[in-house]
Specification:
Layout lengths: L4 H24 L4 H19 L1 H18 L7 H17 L5 H22 L1 H5 L9 H31 L10
Helix pairs in contact: 1-2, 1-3, 2-3, 2-4, 2-7, 3-4, 5-7
């Protein structure tokens, strides 16, 4: 099915609204902030699948700016801006590497570097209001990398579900039951 400009614009608006809802909820719902930020990141992948890389980048930028304006606690949006928002873009680019082992290696190095930066350099800024246990940094980085790889796996499952459910059949052929 050919994607018209109207379809792309409408989809972008819907994805932006849903992203902002999850970011806003993540800024004040205690205990599930990371889950809500992770859910907010899925809409970037939808935009990439439906409109291309440019649509995903525009969604990330628009959600970051709008989220910064709307969310009352400005530190609460930093996990989205510094990781979750652009992860769909990073994942898309990394998975263009033809070798699966190289893909996993790059993802692990990306997660470890990001966690090192966050935990050692900018803990308060990058992690915002998220409570981190007081364990040695190396354990936090190793555990965080494992959790991010799990996040990546679940992200892949959700993307594959979206592709099977909506792209193969087409949105027009959905039936209410």
């Amino acid at each position: 099915m050919k994607r018209t400009k109207t379809f792309k614009l409408t989809l972008g608006g819907i994805c932006l609204a849903l992203t902002i809802i999850f970011i806003y909820a993540g800024s004040f719902v205690p205990g599930i902030e990371l889950t809500l930020f992770a859910l907010s990141s899925l809409f970037t992948a939808v935009m990439i699948l439906e409109t291309g890389l440019g649509g995903g980048i525009l969604l990330y930028l628009a959600a970051s700016v709008l989220g910064f304006i709307i969310v009352p606690g400005k530190l609460a949006i930093t996990p989205y801006i510094c990781l979750f928002g652009y992860y769909g873009i990073v994942k898309y680019l990394i998975e263009k590497i033809p070798n699966a082992i190289a893909q996993i290696t790059v993802k692990v190095l990306f997660f470890a570097a990001l966690l090192c930066l966050g935990l050692l350099g900018f803990r308060e800024l990058l992690l915002g209001s998220i409570d981190i246990p007081d364990y040695p940094v190396i354990i936090l980085i190793a555990g965080g990398t494992v959790m991010m790889m799990l996040y990546d796996y679940i992200y892949t499952l959700v993307i594959n579900f979206y592709i099977r459910r909506f792209q193969k059949k087409g949105i027009d052929s959905m039936k209410l039951s």
